[in-house]
Design goal:
mainly beta, eleven-stranded antiparallel sheet, ten-stranded antiparallel sheet, 4 helices, 7% helix, globular
């Protein structure tokens, strides 16, 4: 018999329960994230880089859960296929500071990259359904690091003895980087540049996709349980790739590399990489004009401002689609090429509140990573990996735009290590005033 797991609770009360637990300051029973961060203070000119989780409460249920037809693989594949131009960067999972993506020929750190991605369908002879072949070419640039906002450094000038945790090269270049102009995309021939990554994406059990091309990709199961002393040195490491699409031609991909040690009890984020890409043409068009800057307006992440927590505070109208895998006694979801999922949608009004703690971190005292969940990244991006008090591991990404729209993708794993649910959300900021009392 096939059953849907973990759908008995009142789903629209989950956010309220989490917020209540946070407000009461109950100590969470959660997996240890096998790392620490450095704690510091920030002045008014500094950007918030990391914070605790923001509280989200449901105020009104506009539409209760209703079933949704699972998107067709062919429809999803047609949305993803094509030539994509993009920019990318890597950030510290501990401090959210920009890290070097590569070491240059002169032994300098390079912090930005341009990418040219080709995604096209292939038909393996042994498979009925076609797969998506992805090839990413890239070039790296920018030895100067992230541009300080408002023309000032991100360090705390009120405390000259406390230095920002960065490289000497980056410190040296911060003084004059405000007017620094980076080479444009068209300055490079990415059709002949180095290959950053090449892989194949099929209709695999761990992928959850949507018709607009959004998707969440990762393992269906994370190994948890008793520690095998003979393999004590082995820590399973997985990549979790989540993609959000804006207006069908622009998308954000974020890749979290996470290590699970001690039988899954230690969760350590190894790497956080983000890429923003624009669709250019169908995949079969390979032309030198792809290197031009025509209709390419993406700015490298080092040149962008970071989203502030205050921008996400307040009421939101949220449309959500969640996909729940079905696990049967015969492990249908594991053995088949396409895992069965149940898709449901709902619409609510929610209110988001500020986190209890946030800051810009410097070399000072050590703080437990328990208090840090959200990385505030440039370009309206938020990334978070958290474990709730009931042991649910959530890997999420948000993409906020100045139009007041926040796109969200979240991936949940149960305490048994199995994929529990994937949620896609479109949040629209409520800007209208409350009606006047009669």
């Amino acid at each position: 018999m096939v059953t849907v797991k973990d759908k008995k609770e009142n789903v629209w009360s989950i956010d309220n329960e989490r917020a209540k637990a946070e407000k009461e300051k109950e100590r969470r029973r959660r997996r240890r994230k096998g790392k620490t961060v450095v704690n510091g203070r920030k002045n008014k000119m500094d950007s918030v880089l990391i914070s605790a989780a923001m509280l989200m409460e449901v105020e009104t249920v506009l539409q209760t859960q209703e079933p949704v037809i699972k998107p067709a693989w062919n429809t999803f594949a047609s949305s993803v296929s094509g030539i994509w131009k993009g920019v990318g960067a890597v950030f510290s999972p501990i401090t959210a500071e920009m890290e070097a993506v590569e070491i240059g020929s002169r032994n300098e750190n390079l912090y930005d990259c341009y990418t040219l991605t080709c995604v096209e369908a292939i038909f393996p002879p042994s498979r009925k359904n076609f797969e998506l072949h992805r090839k990413i070419n890239w070039v790296t640039l920018n030895p100067h690091g992230e541009v300080p906002e408002h023309g000032v450094t991100l360090g705390n000038k009120e405390e000259p003895k406390v230095k920002k945790a960065t490289s000497p090269l980056k410190e040296k270049s911060n003084a004059g980087m405000t007017n620094h102009v980076l080479p444009k995309f068209g300055s490079f021939d990415l059709t002949t540049s180095d290959v950053m990554e090449e892989d194949v994406m099929g209709n695999e059990p761990g992928i959850v996709f949507f018709e607009d091309g959004s998707y969440s990709r990762g393992p269906l199961d994370i190994p948890v349980g008793d520690i095998d002393d003979s393999n004590y040195y082995l820590s399973p490491t997985f990549k979790f790739e989540q993609c959000l699409v804006k207006g069908s031609h622009k998308r954000l991909r974020i890749v979290n590399t996470i290590e699970f040690g001690n039988g899954g009890s230690d969760v350590q984020i190894m790497r956080v990489a983000i890429y923003e890409e624009e669709w250019v043409s169908p995949a079969h068009i390979h032309d030198k004009s792809l290197n031009s800057d025509v209709e390419f307006d993406l700015t490298p992440f080092s040149q962008r401002k970071r989203t502030r927590p205050l921008e996400l505070v307040g009421p939101w109208k949220v449309f959500e689609v969640n996909a729940t895998p079905i696990y049967g006694d015969d492990n249908v979801a594991v053995e088949s090429n396409s895992a069965p999922y149940v898709y449901l949608c709902m619409e609510t009004l929610k209110k988001r509140s500020l986190p209890e703690s946030s800051g810009y971190f410097k070399e000072e005292e050590v703080l437990d990573m328990q208090d840090v969940t959200v990385l505030w990244l440039p370009g309206g991006v938020t990334s978070y990996v958290d474990v709730s008090n009931d042991g649910i591991l959530t890997i999420g990404v948000g993409w906020y735009s100045n139009e007041g729209i926040n796109l969200v993708m979240e991936r949940d794993y149960g305490i048994n290590g199995k994929l529990k649910e994937v949620r896609w959300k479109s949040e629209v900021k409520r800007r209208w005033a409350d009606p006047m009392p009669l």
